[in-house]
UniProtKB/TrEMBL annotation:
Segments passing through the bilayer: 77-97, 109-131, 169-192
Residues making up the signal peptide according to the UniProt record: none
Family statement drawn from the similarity comment of this UniProt entry: Belongs to the sphingomyelin synthase family.
Region (Disordered): 266-291, 296-315
Domain Sphingomyelin synthase-like, first and last residues per copy: 172-240
Biased composition (Basic and acidic residues): 266-277
Topology relative to the membrane: Multi-pass membrane protein
Listed InterPro entries: Sphingomyelin_synth-like, Sphingomyelin_synth-like_dom
Protein name, as recorded: Sphingomyelin synthase-like domain-containing protein
UniProt keyword list: Lipid metabolism, Membrane, Sphingolipid metabolism, Transferase, Transmembrane, Transmembrane helix
Domain of life: Eukaryota
Length: 315
């Protein structure tokens, strides 16, 4: 038993080291995109902090979600935050599973480049919407009479830039018409829907996203329109950006080595090998080592030879 555990631990360590080398190579190529995405997360928080200074509390707007869903109350507001934390941490852990598991489909660095692109586009639209129209916040700390509903004039720009994290994010007001929690939740669920492998987890993730929507409205953190707008906007953003970005390589087909940059020595060796194969009448692709036949000046795979010859004789 001890020998088995030691052998498996050794395999796991080698797997982690190999994956770390691969991801570091990808990180060296794509660090600019990751850094830009992370910086924009700060910009998004700064924008939400800025609109809080513009917020003016007022009567809560009429909302069909408030009428249909029972109010959880301020003492149960933690429920939606707990669900969001679970979704966030689960997704982050899943993106790092290639370091541990043998069966893998994604590259962590490339996936996060894609996720951050989705988030940046969606959050940009969110910033535009809540600066275009400021609505009285429905949350308890944003209502009239609350000390947190209005922010006093800042003493310096430095006070604004600090954004008072995390209290300033949790107790923000005015950043409405688009739910931030739903942006993250839907981007994560849509990403796992495409690159995840467990069907039951995909179904459970969608169920969690729907439950999160109801909890946000029941907690009076957002109006129903904020959740509805997030649902169709994030789906459209992910759909169109996903079509513009290059497709991620699928690791399940064993093409991992195609991504890694080759050294000069490796490139020269590979070029000599390809030239040698071409001189001998073979290409570098094992799929091209099959016998080929020319019919009417066209090169065909041997799977099409019989059909082509029949067509030629029939003509």
């Amino acid at each position: 038993m001890t020998l088995y555990i030691g052998r498996e631990a050794s395999k796991l360590w080698k797997r982690v080291c190999a994956e770390t080398t691969t991801e570091l190579n990808l990180l060296l190529e794509n660090w600019k995109y990751l850094l830009a995405g992370l910086i924009f997360q700060y910009i998004h928080g700064l924008a939400a902090r800025g609109v809080h200074y513009l917020h003016r509390p007022g009567p809560t707007l009429q909302d069909v979600g408030f009428f249909l869903l029972p109010e959880l109350g301020p003492d149960k507001a933690y429920i939606s935050e707990t669900v969001f934390t679970f979704v966030f941490l689960s997704f982050v852990l899943w993106t790092f599973h290639p370091f541990i598991f043998k069966a893998k489909k994604i590259y962590t660095v490339l996936l996060w480049c894609r996720v951050l692109a989705f988030l940046v586009a969606s959050q940009s639209l969110r910033i535009i919407t809540f600066y275009s129209t400021q609505l009285p916040g429905p949350n308890y700390h944003c209502r009239e009479g609350s000390k947190l509903a209005r922010l006093p004039r800042p003493d310096s720009a430095f006070e604004v830039l600090l954004i008072n994290f995390p209290r300033g994010v949790i107790y923000g007001c005015g950043d409405l018409i688009f739910s931030s929690h739903m942006i993250f939740t839907l981007v994560f669920v849509l990403t796992y829907q495409k690159y995840g492998t467990r069907r039951c987890i995909k179904q459970f993730a969608w169920l969690i996203a729907v439950a999160q929507s109801f909890l946000i409205v029941a907690s009076r953190k957002h109006y129903t329109v904020d959740v509805v707008v997030a649902w169709y906007t994030v789906n459209l953003v992910v759909f169109f950006i996903d079509k513009k970005l290059p497709e991620l390589p699928d690791r399940s087909n064993g093409s991992a080595s195609l991504l890694l940059p080759l050294s000069t020595k490796d490139k020269d060796s590979k070029t000599k090998e390809e030239n040698h194969k071409l001189l001998n009448g073979n290409s570098g692709d094992p799929a091209d080592w099959r016998q080929r036949t020319q019919v009417n000046g066209k090169t065909l795979e041997d799977g099409n030879t019989v059909h082509a010859e029949t067509t030629t004789n029939g003509a």
